[in-house]
Amino acid sequence: MKKNWKEVEIALITKGGTAEEFKTGDWRSEKPLYKSDKCKQCLQCWLFCPDSSIIVKDGKMLGIDYDHCKGCGICSKVCPFDAIDMVKEEK
Amino acid sequence: MTKIVAKTGNEAMAEAMRQINPDVVAAYPITPATEIVQIFSSFVSNGEVDTLFVPTESEHSAISACVGAAAAGARVMTGTSSQGLALMHEVLFIAGGLRLPIVICEVNRALSSPINIHCDHSDTMASRDAGWIQIFSEDPQEAYDQTILAMKLSEQLFVPSMVTTDGFIISHAMQRVEIFDDNEVQEYLGEPKRPYNLLDVDNPITVGPLALQDYFMEIKVQQANFIKESRSKIKEILNDFNKKMKRDYSVVEKYMMDDAEFCFVALGSTAGTLRYTVDRLRKEGEKVGLLKVRFYRPFFEEDIVESLKNIKGCAIFDRSDMFAGTGGHLFNDVKSALYNSSSRPFLKDYVYGLGGRDIDVEDIESVYRDIKEFTENNGKGETVKYITVRE
């Protein structure tokens, strides 16, 4: 629900980190597919992802955050082990 | 306890700044406002204030540093004039939009071209739509008082303020000024109040985010509404200032208006000359008064309309031109304020004093004769007249 002019924060000063609330996943035309069997946990994908969409826990790559991944394909390109494929996004 | 001293407008403003003791002053020098921050910088070097003084490479940088410091929760001031205020222009809107309590000591000076260092109001008028409170001063006393008042207003309302004096006429003319005790000023202002604080690391915030079609209008309506509503709050704060600091200021000041048939309306230092001329004309039996507009922004429309309700003919004194073929700024604002009023005086604009051109009692007396004649002729003829100009 969008705020009206009385409810909106003064001068639109908002709390930090609100970009997380904005889902950009539906911008995708291509989708990265993670193949865990090929992954050597080098974390190059995590390092290069411009949208913080590589899910890492305890130093391990677990998969992709499809709510925010825009499908740019950088992770697939930088992966030295061919562990991420780009496929057409289908509804 | 007040102390009586002799001070120029610039010295009076610098003294007010010393007593306010802002956290940050970022400034760049410009005639005729240089002295304000120059004197203040010696207070900094002498350890008389706790201020971080940031000498910047331009006015654009000065006001930008002020915006950053104010967003970080600091009490912030600067001083400028003319081209300096013009160079600040884009950032003035940002400060207004971000609702940051910054105070500018602004000395009215003509804008180029031709280059000129003397007084008119074109610089301040050019920034009238930036979302700032604009207060005009008649003399060094008002410049001093209103600088302190502006800090209070800005911190209570979250709207930046500029307090103006007239270049050289006030800025460099020495007059008697009553100065408060340092602790009175500190007590009056209290702790700085902020709408938000960028440096509150426990509650991180985003200042100045992007707002497009879906939010921009809500933010601007919020700002517009706040400015509209601020008028009653300004009156409250002004009354409180009068009570605590023993002054007698009002948003628009009426002089000999009760039985007046004709009146002058003006901003700034010329109000003094007009008051003197009113006295002279009154001695000759003329029913004339003066309306001095102290707050130009926000515009106290209702107070002005109410003050003019029994007036037959009204001479507006404008020290600036809008270059729209319709006269000066004050004339246009007063004229539109009167549009919905049932009792409208005949209104004529007298543009005077551009680039510091002097105006004297005889000039004003001839304006008086002219507005009388204009009124007797039911407002026929030109409504804008440039006076004290060679023809």
Describe the structure.
The complex is a heterodimer of chains A (91) and B (391). Chain A is α+β, with helices and mostly antiparallel strands and 91 residues long. Chain A has one domain (23-88): Alpha-Beta Plaits, CATH 3.30.70.20. In chain A, 11% of the residues lie in helices and 23% in strands. In chain A, the strands form 2 sheets. A two-stranded antiparallel ribbon of chain A has the order 2-5. A two-stranded antiparallel ribbon of chain A has the order 3-4. The longest helix of chain A has 5 residues, at 44-48. With 391 residues, chain B is an alpha/beta fold. Chain B has 2 domains: 2-245, 3-Layer(aba) Sandwich (Rossmann fold); 252-386, Rossmann fold (3-Layer(aba) Sandwich), CATH 3.40.50.920. In chain B, 41% of the residues lie in helices and 20% in strands. Chain B has a 7-stranded mixed sheet, with helices on both faces. A 6-stranded mixed sheet of chain B has the order 10-12-11-14-15-16, sandwiched between helices. Chain B starts with a strand and ends in a 5-residue tail after the last strand.
What is shown here, in short?
The complex is a heterodimer of chains A (91) and B (391). With 91 residues, chain A is an alpha+beta fold.
Topology, pairings included?
The complex is a heterodimer of chains A (91) and B (391).
Chain A: E1 14-15, E2 30-34, H1 44-48, E3 54-57, E4 60-64, H2 74-78, E5 84-88
Antiparallel strand pairs in A: 2-5, 3-4
Chain B: E1 2-7, H1 9-20, E2 24-27, H2 34-45, E3 52-55, H3 59-71, E4 76-81, H4 82-87, H5 89-97, E5 102-108, H6 122-126, E6 133-136, H7 140-157, E7 161-166, E8 175-180, H8 182-189, E9 205-206, H9 216-245, E10 252-255, E11 262-266, H10 270-283, E12 288-293, E13 295-297, H11 301-307, E14 313-318, H12 329-338, E15 346-351, H13 361-376, E16 384-386
Parallel strand pairs in B: 2-3, 2-4, 4-5, 5-7, 6-7, 11-12, 11-14, 14-15, 15-16
Antiparallel strand pairs in B: 1-8, 6-13, 10-12
Helix pairs in contact in B: 1-2, 1-7, 3-5, 7-9, 10-13, 11-12
